[in-house]
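Ex. 9. Protein: Tyrosine specific protein phosphatases domain-containing protein.
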Amino acid sequence: MSSSQPKKRYPRPPMSLIVENIEGYDIDIYLGGSAGAADRQLHEENNIKVIFNCAVNLDIDLASTTDHKHQPPLLNFGTGHVRYYKIGLIDGPGNPSEMLLSGYYLLRAALLQRMPEKASYPIKEQGNLLIHCRGGRSRSVALLALFLHLEYPQTYPSLQSAIDLIRIKRELHPDEWYETPKPALIEATEQAALMAKHLQKMTL
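Predicted structure tokens for Tyrosine specific protein phosphatases domain-containing protein:
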């Protein structure tokens, strides 16, 4: 595509079901963009209990219970209707492969984490996962592909096989596959996969 021509944008759902009843976690994994991440009704309809934000330049205020003892100029804070995690990826060059690697481990840990029986940890249910970035077409695709490849190598023997599945399930048009994910993100993700496999061998 010529750099002088405006990029064509293709429609896609606010969030898409990628994998159902994933082995070992017994949850469904969805992938979406900012609209899906900000839609509480959509979360409730699909039993979303964990939201994982991949974008460094996107913040969503999910606090539904706030501490009213604090007044402006303090920003809003409190608990939300989901458990919320974030890894700050750039949509293109600039991400160390270690950031993708840490994103994989944080995502995995978020699914394994169990909440204590305390009032300050209100969301304890092990519901479904929504992983997202701004558009749900590059950063979140890269991180979810890394997770699927490392967790289920027999089903996704290569990073590309996981990306192929996500592109189809996410309804990404073939004309935009050259940047879904961005090439620099794929390269960093491939390096992260090699690092994770090396660490796995060291712990055997």
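Check your answer against this statement. Strands lie at 15-19, 29-32, 48-55, 63-66, 78-80, 83-89, 128-132.
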